[in-house]
Give the backbone structure.
Amino acid sequence: MKKQKRWREREFWRGASQEDRYEYLVDGPAASDEIRSFHEAEEKILIDLLQNHVERKEKIALIEIGCGPGRVIRRVARLITERPTTWGDCIEYIVGVDFEIEMIERAIANLILKERKIRDWTIYGAAYEISTATGVPLKEVRETLRKRVAFIDADARLPFLQCESITPVVAIMFGTLGNIPKMERVLKTVSEMCWPKGETLIVGFDRAHHEIGSERYRKLAERQFKPLHETKWDDKSGVFESPGGFYSQWFSLPDIKKILHRYFGKECAPEPISRSGFYVVAKPKSTIPRIWRRVLVPKSQKIAALQLLCPHCGSAIHGGSLPLPKVAKLTCTEQSHYFKVVDIMGFQVPRLEVE
């Protein structure tokens, strides 16, 4: 039974990411007005949250879990390059975490390449758009993004990130929380990552409005998005599922509040967003037991660093300071877990899979 469940978890991510129609129908000109409205609403909430930290002149690391093809990362990347004395000075890193390496490849392509085509739609990369708008040479913009943006392949495990002298802002957007197989493990990790002064933005779908989801998934299925064919709603579990491996949990507001209170302060409360969603801005709970972490970053180092920590034992990963240098292998300091690094268009992406 467990083996079958793990297979279905992986099949969902693989099925969703292998379809160009995911970007074409959800993050492109063919997206419905309802989806566009949802994206705009959640992006505004995130930008306002980041703006609060920028105004306080804090050093920030934005960590997006479930970054997909990089919609949010492209938006924030423009801000740090177009506003170098405000946003650029404060946002040290943008980190995209996804559960499928193919999604990360697309996110990097959408960030760095001049253009690429999805069916009859052409994407112009963020670097090209920034260069055109500001007059800064394209090569220079690309190098800036390579230094400030990093990606992690979670592969259904979420690594710890030790944020030395940086305030982490974690974003879990567009219903990603309901697609994560080990949701509570991820929330616990995020709470630990953000403690004591970080914040987490969580955007999800409200099961009270699941008929909107039924309509959305039916229309996408009609447009030949295969993972959504024959999607069914289970009212008891609050889950949409399809034979193609699609899985999406929609939460009642009392339930999501109860779940989040295990890892975040009781003052966090869901607020409505668009027609079918909710959002929560949560601060970590101080009573959660922390894994002891060995600090490897010298105190004299001027540039704050993000340190990768092993998702299995919590110890620091040797050579795992973001952005990663060109290395072939990472080893945790316990020397019992090994992780591969993949070079994707000049970005060193750690694949956190134990050999």
